[in-house]
Amino acid sequence: ITAYFNGTYIDPADLVVPIDERGHQFGDGVYEMIRVYNGTPFMLEEHIDRLYRSAHAIKLQIDPDRSALKNTMFELIQKSGLTNLDLYVQVTRGIAPRNHLFPNCPVSVSMTVKPFRTIQIGENGAGVTFYPDERWQNCYIKSLNLLPNILAKQSAHEDGYLEAILVRDGKVTEGTSSNVYMVKNSAIMTTPLSKQILSGITRMAVKDIALQAGIPFIEQQFTPDEMLQADEIFITSTTMEIMPIVRVREKVMNMGKAGAITSTLRGKFNELK
Ligand code: PDD
């Protein structure tokens, strides 16, 4: 059993989602991706806070009883028999005959779990490229509408890169599914929180680690050119954790190795999880 849909635990292959489910017809919903280490969801409360924030931003009413949602998560984790896994949680505006206007029906809640593999590339770092940020004005909402993200990431992948770094008005915003950081003169710099980026949970962890370690954490935008002049670059997400970036397009950064500050952050992050 590795999936859940509106009250039923089931295998994903057996799961039939009604044709009038608004998640797939309109992308009318929000989601979270949560990593579970040794049976314990990492920063679960922060993820649930963000899920409710996203839902509120699109006028979607999730059951205010957080413990009911958490119970479902833990029950699915337990039924899966997995201990190290990624838990995907999605809430949509429900099942109703197709109509743009909000229906009067219960929201749909679905979840899936799958085991994760630690990406080995993390030791040596990965490459990134730039791509125009073609998304909408409300990127702080973790919405199901990921078409611009998917197109940018696919393009980067076809060119041999792990991630596309999105650029809006000449400045880096974030990755298609990650937050982006550069290190210059031993200080970390990253895009400030605004409607233009997702408030990453891993970003919160990195900020805490940096402040505790006395590493300056400067929330300020930078340009692709400034990024090319950086001492170190890394990106973060729930599934990539803290990923060193050692190539930006043709340019090899830090002689192709993860930098000292990136490695320090990675070490301290491993102690938290
Ligand atoms: N993506 N920015 C975007 C656009 C993202 O989609 C994500 C996460 C992040 C990093 O957030 P966090 O640290 O909370 O995972 C930043 C998830 C992993 C996904 O879409 O699968």
Automatic annotation (TrEMBL):
Cofactor annotation: pyridoxal 5'-phosphate
Keywords: Aminotransferase, Pyridoxal phosphate, Transferase
Class in the EC hierarchy, top level: transferase
Organism lineage string: Bacteria, Bacillati, Bacillota, Bacilli, Bacillales
Catalytic reaction annotation: D-alanine + 2-oxoglutarate = D-glutamate + pyruvate
SUPFAM superfamilies the record matches: D-aminoacid aminotransferase-like PLP-dependent enzymes
Top-rank lineage group of the source organism: Bacteria
Subunit structure as annotated in this protein's UniProt entry: Homodimer.
GO MF annotations, alphabetized: D-alanine-2-oxoglutarate aminotransferase activity; pyridoxal phosphate binding
Biological process, per Gene Ontology: amino acid biosynthetic process; carboxylic acid biosynthetic process; D-amino acid metabolic process
Family: Belongs to the class-IV pyridoxal-phosphate-dependent aminotransferase family.
CDD domains: D-AAT_like
Name used for this protein in its record: D-alanine aminotransferase
Listed PANTHER family: AMINO-ACID AMINOTRANSFERASE, D-ALANINE AMINOTRANSFERASE
PROSITE patterns linked: AA_TRANSFER_CLASS_4 (PS00770)
GO cellular component, one term: cytosol
Role according to the record: Acts on the D-isomers of alanine, leucine, aspartate, glutamate, aminobutyrate, norvaline and asparagine. The enzyme transfers an amino group from a substrate D-amino acid to the pyridoxal phosphate cofactor to form pyridoxamine and an alpha-keto acid in the first half-reaction.
